Amino acid sequence: IGGQTALKLIRQHGSIENILENINKERYQIPEDWPYQDARLLFKEPLVSVDTEQSELKWSTPDEEGLITFLVNENGFNNDRVTKAIEKIKAAKTKSSQGRLESFFKPAASASVAIKRK
Question: Whole-angstrom Cα distance, residue 16 to residue 41?
């Protein structure tokens, strides 16, 4: 179940327990030992850093191995989707930024203008 469907089901049924009781079990196969309490806990008490010191952020090439380890191995993301997303990030980084309008037009040399008499 994706994020939008999960939100729709929560709004419709009110809780994870009610969803599990009322969900179409033929369409959605939910394991008997699925730790839904842990899923709820992720939203109520997310894992956040309480480091009071601000980390300095900088843009650099993505650490592919680190991203795959964190997203796929530690958090259960799909390996193919993560790999494709990394490739998109790398491709976007190599593209040039948007050009300015002046770069499309060159200034035309103006003919000498007659000086008006006063």
Answer: 12
Topology of the domain covering 1-45: DNA polymerase; domain 1 (1.10.150)
Unique residue bearing structure tokens 């480091």 = 51
Q: Where are the domains of the chain?
A: 1-45, 61-94
Q: What is the full DSSP assignment across 37-69?
A: HHHHHHHHS-------SPPPP------HHHHHI
Long-range CB contacts (within 8 A, 24+) of 21-29? 28/1
Q: How far apart are CA 13 and CA 22, in angstroms?
A: 8
Q: For the chain (length 118 residues), average pLDDT per consecutive 10?
A: 85 89 84 84 81 74 90 91 91 74 68 64
